[in-house]
Amino acid sequence: MSTSDNAAAKLHPETRLVHAGTMRSQFGETSEALFLTQGHVYDSAEQCEARFLNKDPGFQYARFSNPTVAMLEGRMAAFEGAEACRATATGMAAVTAAVMAQVRAGDHVVAARALFGSCRYVVEDHLPRYGVASTLVDGTDLAAWRKAIRPNTKVLFLESPSNPTLEIIDIAAVAEIAKAAGATLVVDNVFATPLFQRPLELGADLVVYSATKHIDGQGRCLGGLIVGSKALIEGDIQTFLRQTGPAISPFNAWVMLKALETLPLRVAKQAENATKVADWLAAHAKPSKVIFCGHDSHPQAAIIARQMSGPSTLIAFEVPGGKDAAYRLLNACKLIRISNNLGDAKSLIVHPATTTHQRFSPEVRADMGVTDGMIRLSIGLEHADDLIADLERALAKV
Ligand SMILES: *Cc1c(COP(=O)(O)O)cnc(C)c1O
């Protein structure tokens, strides 16, 4: 039973997202089936033995694999043009497995300092507890990456664009540094989405996603994905996942599988809306700063032009007057809801300094560019004019 279709590689990405990975049961269903089962029965004791010896290609137990989960993995691998993919219960399970499975006590990890809060926690606090040293660098400074490399460096980890300041890291350049050091590069590609950035083509070894965000796209389920070579995914990472158990529920995998079919349509529309809102914000007198990957004014517009084919669906902007002004704006929004999720069909707004980045000291926040007046906006599928009207009313309160 094949989970990734070789013929699919010749088809366009949109087509792969609708068809790749599909495995039909004896009933020939049109839509992919939800196999809500913990285990499988065998025709004979001999077949059961063969399955345990990996000599028979079927399924055994849902912590290891499941037909619906395998369809999601096959579809995502085909979409990314990757050899293999594994799905996990959450984005954090994907990040943790991708990094932890590759290291042991005595190894060293280098990561960009502008990371999603929990990712930074894993690198900064968790790895050292197990004897894996870690160094955080300014990801935009290539000399800092080179300087941080040690003989025992095994993994480089970055996120680009970063949360919430949309800082960009030159992925191809960091991939070269990783290669020269004999280390692997893991890229968290959530903010760019798989549509607008292809880290594997830029030289990354593994790409991780929180499928919770744009891939579900409708705020329903948690999920994670790890994409890369067979050698990496089917080696230590698969062992880590099977033995430690962060398996995705088949139901959640089914939601993600069906969501992949509409991902290009949704992300294109969200990006189009985000461009309209960002243009409007940049022309408005109130915000003291607007950061958007589609604007020439982005400090790293040259790298964006090289490595991204779209602007992401997130906007960061700053209002004068710090936290009070930011709170007045958030509280005045009626259509755009206050939430720390992102990539959703519903536009969402959040104040990073008091939520996602609350645990950092004011100095670290300042270093990361997270000011008290900064606001993060995730643009959804509403009509852009309604979003602009909501923001216009809210900005009047600042
Ligand atoms: C949300 C997010 C994660 C974690 O994903 P979960 O599904 O919440 O576990 C990791 N990285 C980035 C950039 C995210 O936005």
UniProtKB/TrEMBL annotation:
Pathway: Amino-acid biosynthesis; L-methionine biosynthesis via de novo pathway; L-homocysteine from O-succinyl-L-homoserine: step 1/1. It comes from the Bacteria. Its EC number is 2.5.1.-. Its cofactor is pyridoxal 5'-phosphate. Keywords: Amino-acid biosynthesis, Methionine biosynthesis, Pyridoxal phosphate, Transferase. One of its GO terms (biological process) is transsulfuration. The modification N6-(pyridoxal phosphate)lysine is found at residue 213. GO terms for molecular function: carbon-sulfur lyase activity; pyridoxal phosphate binding; transferase activity, transferring alkyl or aryl (other than methyl) groups. It is an enzyme of class 2 (transferase). This is O-succinylhomoserine sulfhydrylase. It comes from Bosea spartocytisi. The gene is metZ.
